[in-house]
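User: Could you go from structure to sequence for me? I need the amino acid at each position, not a summary. Structure tokens:
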């Protein structure tokens, strides 16, 4: 609890926005369901990156990234391998911190507060900003215990059954597992395991979800289920997804950021080339590098 107490310090994070996980079909948050540029323009900014450069040792991985990420939309990060997509994503919940040699300059603001300021507690950051990885990584525990795991760790033991059910419904998995909650999570299919990992992430009611190639290890049917889920989840969460699959970005994302290696730099370093509505990125991009990439000419 002393770690969480750090969140009370002046430079620490603001109280979490009032949110709860609700079953499918429940009313969406204020901004959800509105379409069009005007609606998008007035959305709250959740992450505001300002001139962010990340190095591993002396070598920069991404440089001078300035990018606002809006609430309750899906933002996709696309670009060729090695351009820093995962590095960027991991900056948003301080998952890079434990990598030897990692350093960051610039600012990563989360609801206006610097995520890297002194006094910000990393445990609290990860509670608010959940992450799902490329390869489903359920624990060797029951389905129930996987979903209840983080809630128990945080002492959120009241009405745990309801919390687990809400999370599994939120991840579109409840109907498939409700009769075998005590069975091992390892017996689920890959696609079910990934949805279980999403349920595990949303069970503690985060504010944002970071997804790093969440469907790249899955078959097309399981991929379609995850993509469908994105559309539902964005009503309650701010979602940032890294994908190498451009069709997937076009299908799920409202906003898309195209990263590439900066050819003007002496050594290969990831740079943000273009960031816009997904439709613009795919049909009328401003930069010829974006056009070449989305039309499959390189990458
Ligand atoms: P992408 O997700 O676009 O493939 P990454 O963020 O994984 O790109 O990598 C960007 C650059 O950072 C690459 O040059 C990669 O070698 C380097 N990098 C990534 N992770 C590490 C790490 N843990 N240690 C050192 N260098 C890393």
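Assistant: Here is the amino acid at each position, in order:
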């Amino acid at each position: 609890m002393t770690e969480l107490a750090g969140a009370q310090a002046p430079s620490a994070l603001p109280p979490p926005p009032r949110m709860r996980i609700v079953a499918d079909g429940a009313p969406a948050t204020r901004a959800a369901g509105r379409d069009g540029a005007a609606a998008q323009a007035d959305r709250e900014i959740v992450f505001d990156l300002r001139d962010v450069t990340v190095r591993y040792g002396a070598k920069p991985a991404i440089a001078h990234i300035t990018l606002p990420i809006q609430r309750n939309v899906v933002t996709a990060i696309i670009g060729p391998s090695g351009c820093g997509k995962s590095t960027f994503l991991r900056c948003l919940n301080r998952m890079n911190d434990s990598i030897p040699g990692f350093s960051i300059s610039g600012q990563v603001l989360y609801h206006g507060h610097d995520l890297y300021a002194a006094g910000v507690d990393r445990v609290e950051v990860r509670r608010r900003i959940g992450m799902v990885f490329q390869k489903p990584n359920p624990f060797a525990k029951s389905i129930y215990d996987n979903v209840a795991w983080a809630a128990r760790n945080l002492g959120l033991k009241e009405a745990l059954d309801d919390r687990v059910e809400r999370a599994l419904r939120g991840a579109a998995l409840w109907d498939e597992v409700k009769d075998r909650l005590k069975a091992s999570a390892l017996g689920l299919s890959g696609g079910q395991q990934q949805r279980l990992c999403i349920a595990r992430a949303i069970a503690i009611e985060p504010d944002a979800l970071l997804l790093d190639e969440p469907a790249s290890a899955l078959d097309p049917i399981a991929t379609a289920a995850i993509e469908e889920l994105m559309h539902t989840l964005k009503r309650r969460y701010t979602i940032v997804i890294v994908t190498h699959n451009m069709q997937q970005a076009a299908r799920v994302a409202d906003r898309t950021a195209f990263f590439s290696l900066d050819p003007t730099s002496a050594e290969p370093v990831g740079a943000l080339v273009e960031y816009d509505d997904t439709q613009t990125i795919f049909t009328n991009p401003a930069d010829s590098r974006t056009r070449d990439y989305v039309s499959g000419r390189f990458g």
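One structural detail worth keeping in mind: The chain has a mean pLDDT of 88.
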